[in-house]
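Input/output pair, single chain:
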Amino acid sequence: MKLEQLDDEIKARHKIKVGAKVPRYDLTRFAGYYKPLQSLINAKGQLCLYLNGTTGIIDSPDERRAERYLQGKDSLNFSSVYLLNNPTTTDSGYIVGFGNPNRSQTYSKAHKPNPFYECRDDGFLFLIAPDWKTLEIIVVTSGYNTIQGNAKGLADGVYNEAIETMREAAKTFYQY
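Output:
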């Protein structure tokens, strides 16, 4: 998945709020299929996630708290974003992070069914542009227990060829 912060002109053209405090990332390219994402698509057919800081929100010691988290439609926590070695970059300059889907059966005070519950054992790898304008997310099926090691492999270039193949196979998700 490739998510990008759209420029203000594109946002205005598509009636997306300009100047929001919390950065919005819109899904622009996608390779493959990941069923739980269907629940995050809005009425316009767009999928967006919001990147939030965790300080003062997540009640964990600093050494265990993720640096950020991604939140989707209806305030669903998509994933925490832990940065590898705060931050490790790849040869191409990307910051490497990792996380996993919300593992609870329900979310919110209304106890809505969590669409990611069936995929709770998956893991996410994040390639983050140095300016934080672009996020690429790679789903590691059943990678919950190995995701930190997978992130180290990503930083070491182990997955470079696979990433290029996914980028080439990616299709436009929504035409902005």
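The first strand starts at residue 2 and ends at 4. The radius of gyration is 16 Å.
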